[in-house]
Design a protein that fits this description.
The chain has helices spanning 57-65, 78-87, 93-111, 115-118, 141-147, 163-171, 189-200, 216-225, 242-248, 256-259, 262-274, 288-298, and strands spanning 5-20, 25-38, 41-47, 125-128, 131-133, 154-157, 178-181, 204-208, 229-232, 251-254, 278-281, 303-304, 317-318, 321-322, 327-329, 339-340. The protein is an alpha/beta fold. The structure holds magnesium ion.
């Protein structure tokens, strides 16, 4: 069948504002663009390597350079391709999913159908999505909230020594529903409980990763205590026991860059639902390319946090979009439906 050529290059995405979470600050997302060409058709994918998972732009491109394109001799047999990637060893999940994304995009373009049709999605409209406000100086927060005027749900990054001050400041300018992401920032059970008690009166609907992933016993206790649903993010890369996670959280935040595969993520949605978990799809800081792939997965999810492309200055791509209630929807174009802007 087809002979494929694989190309990749750095995709450096300057951010609108320095973005700060409990672990780091950054001004540029150092991503990687992947192109897979066969039969005159180009499938595209994007990796957003994450230092928390020992990945960088360099390590991502190094992995891509080691991929043997003869593996793609039947490009429609994605399961076999995935198994070949898995045999290349653990890690490099952002590189793996970028390649699989390009392959699915190629398949959709080759068949001239949008992937949501090929996968029999219930529709091309997904859940309502949030807009993320990073950690910032207290005096800047009202401006950050004003910039998010178009978005009905805010996701606020916490995990500082002034979390209550941050929430009080935000609550002084808006009463929109809030999701919290503590990014493992509350280091002991008492601190976590104290914050959750405070947040329960603040129209907060969900808390992502309140405590470090290593604190399983405390997280399980916190799940039983919390009136607000807790979601696993750093606790779940896609390879942990879903049953064990269900003891510690009410839901899981799936991210393609962590699971390393669209197909495996779809399988995890079914496993998670069977374990009684709510399902959220999230993103890293990435362009509309990777985020459209996440939007495709969102069609089967309860919650979506797909604002990564809104945090960058000049998005090189056009793909996912939002309707008047900020539900994400996918473009009616073949493959992922992503085009250059
Ligand atoms: Mg998170």
């Amino acid at each position: 069948m087809s002979q494929f050529s694989l190309r990749y290059a750095p995709l450096n995405l300057p951010l609108r504002h320095t973005f700060t979470i409990s672990r780091w600050s950054r001004d540029v997302a150092a991503n990687v663009l992947v192109e897979l060409e066969g039969d005159g058709i180009i499938g595209i994918g994007e990796a957003s390597p994450n230092a928390r998972y020992d990945e960088s732009q360099e390590s991502c491109m190094k992995w891509l350079s080691s991929f043997d394109t003869s593996t793609l001799k039947n490009p429609f047999d994605v399961e076999t391709v995935l198994q070949a990637m898995e045999r290349m060893g653990p890690g490099n999940y952002s590189a793996k999913v970028a390649l699989e994304m390009a392959l699915y995009d190629w398949i959709g373009k080759k068949l001239q159908v949008p992937l949501y049709d090929l996968w029999n999605a219930p529709s091309n409209v997904g859940p309502q999505t949030c807009f993320t406000v990073g950690i910032d100086k207290t005096e800047n927060l009202p401006d950050r909230v004003a910039e998010a005027a178009a978005y009905p749900v805010l996701k606020i990054k916490l995990g500082t020594d002034r979390d209550k001050e941050i929430i009080k400041t935000i609550r002084s300018v808006t009463d929109k529903p809030i999701w919290i992401d503590a990014n493992e920032g509350w280091k002991d059970l008492d601190t976590a409980k104290d914050h959750i008690r405070f947040l329960a009166d603040q129209n907060v609907h969900m808390i992502e990763q309140p405590m470090p992933a290593s604190m399983k016993k405390e997280l399980a206790e916190l799940k039983a205590y919390s009136p607000i649903i807790t979601m696993a993010d750093e606790s779940f890369t896609g390879r942990e026991s879903v049953e064990e996670l269900a003891a510690c959280f009410h839901g899981i935040n799936l991210k393609l860059m962590k699971t390393g595969s669209l197909r495996r993520t779809m399988q995890l949605i079914h496993t998670g639902r069977n374990a009684g978990l709510k399902i959220m799809i999230g993103c890293m800081i990435e362009s509309s390319l990777a985020n459209t792939a996440a939007a495709l997965i969102s069609l089967w999810c309860d919650y979506a946090d797909l604002d990564g492309h809104l945090l960058i200055n000049e998005d090189p791509f056009k793909g996912l979009a939002f309707n008047e209630s900020n539900n994400v929807f996918l473009p009616q174009r073949p493959g992922l439906g992503v085009i250059p802007r």
